[in-house]
Amino acid sequence: MKSIKEYLYYFIKVNSEKSHRDYYRNYYTKYLDMYMSCEEKKSANTIKNEMRILKKYWNVYPFQYFRYNLYKKDCTLSIEEMKDYIPDFFAYYLLFPKSFKDRNILCEDKKLMHIVNVGLKISQPNTLFFTENNTILSSSLDFINTTKCYNLIQKSNANKIFVKPTFGVGGKGIKVFNKNNNIFLDSSSNTPLDENYISEIAKNNYIVQEGVNQHMDINKIYPYAINTFRIITEYNQGKEPKIIFSLLRMGCGGMQIDNASSGGIYIKINSESGLLGDEAIADDRKTYIKHPDTLFLFSNYKIPFWNEIIKFAKDVALKYSPIKYIGWDIAYSESGPVLIEGNNGPGIEIIQDHFGGVRKEFDINNPNDFWFSKSYGLKDL
User: Fold this and answer.
1) Which residues form the Alpha-L-glutamate ligase-related protein ATP-grasp domain (predicted)?
2) Cα(208)–Cα(344) distance, rounded to whole angstroms?
């Protein structure tokens, strides 16, 4: 018999799902538009019935039905196979929260993750300083002024400096400053990274880091962004961390970040062999057998240092135990793997774009079990 606290959790989550429908309806506008314009849809009755079954199974409005083109006539999946596609709300508000529990902040706060990585001796980009609430802190969290910050920038041997929101996802708000005659300039506005700029960003929370010098073998694929390996690990107490999915995220069209939501493309990797898949996919569902800018052919290309990346991902996952699922963004530099960040909600959409429905891989036997919980605090909701 379920407790009052478990039912309270259920009602909070149900109301949350309803309140998020407008958000997801807006988020999935392009997929809903594709559905509306599609001339090769299943019959209206079939679509209505399949959506009803999926909604009842997940207890979530089935936006995944549109994201993964389950409505098309050429979709050969049975309704049972369609159930394997995890809805976004379920993934980000029910599945992954049970994985990270009260350790959520470790992945959401880039400043905190930097500090933890230093303590755990995990290779990461060199951090120059932090800004927050009109205060500037060095990488060792000492108070410093704008002049010292600018001196750090002038002494940097990096070709790029990244200014990232301390709390941010999807590459939003990131500014990239490229070195030009010993001055770092914003790639989009030519604004210099000087004392005036530092004073301006000091009003908010940012982390300022040197760019990684990417290995030449990754530069061949796309040289203008740090292309990262998204490695999703599973950790069960007392067992070795397991790699459950691997992807390569790439910049595109001259962009200097690789986030799919910002215009990047992504391709699956065979976690055992390091072989790339046959096609990369963009967020708008376009597919590419070659990189559209460099014409790099994906099929049958094997990442030459794959075993090193896998070992690094497993080592990091073990150090961050007992968080069950984390998506690690790992760059490969001239001197080896570097952790860019960890994601406590590791992109269920791009995973399922490449691997299909992954309900079983995430050990979801009965979705209803995830709607009830007694191990939580109200402040976490």
Assistant:
1) 106-352
2) 22
What's the sign of the alpha-carbon dihedral 61, 63, 64, 66? positive
Nearest-10 crossing angle of helices 29-37, 4-27: 60
The pLDDT assigned to 377 comes to 53
Q: Which residues pair with 214 in a beta bridge?
A: 333
Instruction: State residue 289's pLDDT score.
Output: 98
Question: Nearest-CA neighbor of 86 among 286, 381, 369, 361?
Answer: 361
Q: pLDDT tens digit string along 202-245? A: 999 999 999 999 999 999 999 999 999 999 999 998 889 999 99
Q: Percentage of the chain surpassing pLDDT 70? A: 98
Residue 371 near residue 59 (C-beta atoms within 8 A): yes
Distance between terminal CA atoms of the chain? Answer: 23
In terms of pTM, does the model score above 0.90?
yes
CATH number of 215-355: 3.30.470.20
Residue type, 148: K
Identity of residue 33? D
Cβ contacts of 157 within 8 Å, gap of 6 or more? none
Concatenated DSSP letters of 219-240: HTT-SSS--EEEEEEE--TTS-
